[in-house]
Amino acid sequence: MNRDAHDRAREVLSARDEVTPAEQNWVQQHLAECAQCRQFAQEVQEVVRALRAVPFIAKADVVRSTQMRVRLRARELRNRGERLWLVWISCAFVSAFALISNALVWEAFAWAGSWAHVPDMVWQLGFAMFWIAPTIAASFLFLAHGTHFADRNGGARG
């Protein structure tokens, strides 16, 4: 056996959690042929067993602190889940209302267009502008609000 194969086998044996199935097969074949690496594998297993046998005792204040943090995190996650549930319900109601109201507004624009004898393209463009205008206005307001804060806080604008 060449030295590289032994080094590779030792690396694979030392990194058990990050080993691919192909590497596992290769190292098993290598261990069947190489007594030196087989001895190394047994020593690694003994060290792992010895480390697992050592009891770990934490101080009481560390245990209490850890338990408190785990409980706080569990409470955070529970509250987050409840808030997300409310967000999903709100989104469902907003979507349903948007579908219904858009259909009614479309019909109103169609009626107004036919009543005023306006071409279909004109009243449809009016509907699109009616639908998009609040978003554009809000974008400008948010942009102006952001630059106001950047000026007030001494931030540099691009």
Structure explained in plain terms:
The protein has 158 residues and is mainly alpha-helical. The protein has a domain at 3-53. It is built from five helices and no strands. It has helices spanning 3-14, 21-33, 35-53, 60-115, 120-152. Helix 1 (3-14) crosses helix 2, helix 2 (21-33) packs across helix 3 (35-53) and helix 4 (60-115) packs antiparallel against helix 5 (120-152). The longest helix has 56 residues, at 60-115. The chain is elongated and about 95 Å long. The two termini are 63 Å apart.
Task: Briefly characterize the structure.
The protein is mostly helical. The chain has helices spanning 3-14, 21-33, 35-53, 60-115, 120-152.
Stretches where pLDDT is under 50 for at least 5 consecutive residues are none
Overall average pLDDT: 84
Biggest sheet details: none
User: Quick one: overall form?
Assistant: elongated
Write the layout of secondary structure elements.
Layout: H1 3-14, H2 21-33, H3 35-53, H4 60-115, H5 120-152
Helix pairs in contact: 1-2, 1-3, 2-3, 4-5
Characteristics:
158 residues; mainly alpha; 5 helices; single chain
